[in-house]
Amino acid sequence: HEYKSYLSSHDTIALNMETGASSPSRNLECKPRPLPSTPTKRAPNRQHLGHYSPQLRHCLGNGTGSPSKEKSCDRFIPTRTGAQWENSFSLTPESHNENGDEGREHQTYRCLLQNELLGAKIDDIKLSTDDSNNFLRTPHKRRLFHYQSPSREHEEQGYSLSPVSRKSQKLLTSPKKSLRKISRLPYKVLDAPELQDDFYLNLVDWSYSNVLTVGLNTSVYLWSACTSQVTRLCDLSCEGDTVTSVGWSDRTHLLAVGTNRGRVQLWDTQVQKRTAIFEAHESRVGALAWNGDLLCSGSRDRFIIQRDIHTPPQQFKKMAGHKQEVCGLKWSPDKQHLASGGNDNKLFVWNQSSLSPVQRYTDHVAAVKAIAWSPHQHGLLASGGGTADQHIRFWNTLTGQPLQSIATGSQVCNLAWSKTTHEFVSTHGYSQHQILVWKYPSLQQVVCLTGHNCRVLYLAMSPDGQSIVTGAGDETLRFWNVFNKSRLQKESRSALNLFSSIR
After folding, report:
1. Which residues of 273-306 are buried (b: 16+ CB within 10 A; e: fewer)?
2. What pLDDT, in 10s, does the model give residues 387-435?
3. Which of 179, 299, 354, 359 has the most C-beta neighbours closer than 10 Å?
4. DSSP character at residue 202
5. Cα–Cα distance between 200 and 244 in angstroms, integer?
6. pTM of the full predicted structure?
């Protein structure tokens, strides 16, 4: 029951309300108040006027008068002039996992939204990477109402039973690209007893005929990747010497062996016979580099010796520039320039006829052993610094200017570019002992490989460019599959390629 009463100011009343048998009575003391004669008008809430459109605010006015007296407004029309859907849509976060399933699904969903909401007409995810970004960043001014005859595409969509457009259907039914998976475990591990743990040596190399050579203390061993046969090529113990570097010739079976006494020996691996001995250095030879019949050797005596193997041993060219031991040598892919790195933290570039470096790079603050020329971009050179530096730096040797660098967090021991893609691999020492695969020029890590217990000081790549082998002071050699095979090799194996048999 509801009781209403208007009492005088001096009267009180006790109302007993019983809701049931078990409910206790409640005593409410009520005071009277005068009954209003006319209902009060509520002022509009000015706090929320900013959320309405200008048309609605104009109809409401300032809240003092009646809206109907100023201007009649019978409906609410929201304003969307400043929405800018194209720019707002581009603010959605993108997935950083480009190689994963989640990243592809997220990208497909973004393209689908662009097709249905913005009319982007994207039917391929590959093409949407750049086109969709440009579409979003530079929105086109479009007329809200545009009267024209409907296109044939719209007429066909009228008879379609799919809720999405034809472009979106093609996008959803497009085949998925096979994802590249890199195994984090080596597919083969070989024992390498007495493999020296010395940063300045180069004791592992892989020939074009798929034969791996390793220098173990006083001996040089050959391992065939095809037959897994191991052969000991030479033993320098009788000469009181040790192996400090090895290097295969480009397209022959000749192998150069640098020793601790400053000698360079030339071996024919097919007949397992030594063909020449060159004595021009005064200290150990830690780096070797071939350029056809030209052989360059870098030593602790700070000099680089360049010689033609078909000339007498007394004829050679001595190149001076480094102040400390030369620990890295690499020829450019066009065989016109030689890059050298030393313990003096310097990176030099030489040509075939110069006796002094033509370019000098001094940004590193530690020894430069890791050197690699890009096979994809002419004049691009990469170098890595030692423990005090821990940076991989890139140089444009055409202009002599530095490009970019990245801090790796550990000693950079080796660098090698992929033969098929714009990627490179780096091996590291103190203190991570890891192998990293990078994308260029984004410098994004593709994979991190671990397994060695000591510094990964040695690196070599297989002739097909698919596998790498790493060696460390833990006396093991580990083989990894990190890169894809080249497309030319895949096409040549196809039975439909009619030109594969033409020579």
Report:
1. eeebebebbeebbbbbbbbeebbbbbbbbbbbbb
2. 999 999 999 999 999 999 999 999 999 999 999 999 999 999 988 899 9
3. 299
4. B
5. 9
6. 0.67
